[in-house]
Amino acid sequence: MKQQWSKEQANEWYQRQGWLCGFNYLPSTAVNWTDIWQQETFDPATIDRELGWAAQAGYNSLRINLPFIVWEHDRDGLLARIEHFLRLADGHGFSTMLALMDDCGFSGDEPYLGPQKPPVPGKHNSQAAASPGRDKVCDREVWPQIERYIRDVIHHFRDDKRVLLWDLYNEPGNRGIFATGTVETQYDEKLEAYAHELIRLAFEWARDEDPSQPLTVCAWRLPAEEEGETFFRHPLDHTALALSDVVSYHAYTNTARMTAIIQQLQTSGRPLFCTEWLARHVGSTPEEQLPLMYIAKVASYQWGLVRGKTQTWLPWPSIMQGSTDYCRLWFHDVFDENGIPFSRQEMALVRRLRQIAPPVQGE
Q: For a tag site, which of 10, 154, 202, 292 has the least CB within 10 Å?
């Protein structure tokens, strides 16, 4: 089996990329990842149009999740649609990070094919579907098929220069279910133990396919704020950080904490990717945090691009309960459905940072 990239190898690769400024992408017409990737609802016209807005704003990379259920039932079709998507993204100047698994099933439903339920008014990401699905993660009899999925997709694109990075597992062990717009419940706690085992196996399977791109799994659990805190203390986060070629993390938090997180993770000596951030209601704003990530040489991938069926412009239930301005202030996303920015100042900042020369490593 191929070994983890050395720190030197990872940093030499990262130096060649320049500063990556991107976003997590779902087209405005898709309510979840199944919706974008199944044949009936794949929407290249919308994808092309929205990526055009992002390119004009100055972004140069994106992150997108893949659905196990679509691969399982339409393997050849999914691979063809990934190819189509990569062609569109590359045509607009974007490198693409592909995420293979994801435990964020906030709808509470297991993934299913066909027409997806419409968004629930007033609820953030109301039809979010996991991949392969929490029940499958907790069923070892399904794991050989999950292994085939991971190996197949990576093998197919392992030398594709349009694929920047493999994110093997988004937020492993995330048990959240958004019961209503203001109430969150939890999936069975056993998910964490199974997800932890699956992280290790996913790295083994992926490395065995010998991709030219690096591998990562995000650290994502932030504790309640406390003085002198250390971050990502959960065992799943420890394993993700230890096995990744490049370090990725999620940080929907204020700028002081974001700074402390970056300082802590820089001790790894590996390139840093913030693969989810931007939550305006809690102080995670472009005005403060994009310049910070630029100066710290952190690749930036905000949550969301266009306001749409995911309704991620609305806050999480926990934020919605205490929010007095959620209608005025968007939580995630930067464009409306017509390509008009939520804030022209934010988009001007993206362009400005992308136009100036990237910092030289070691300065």
A: 292
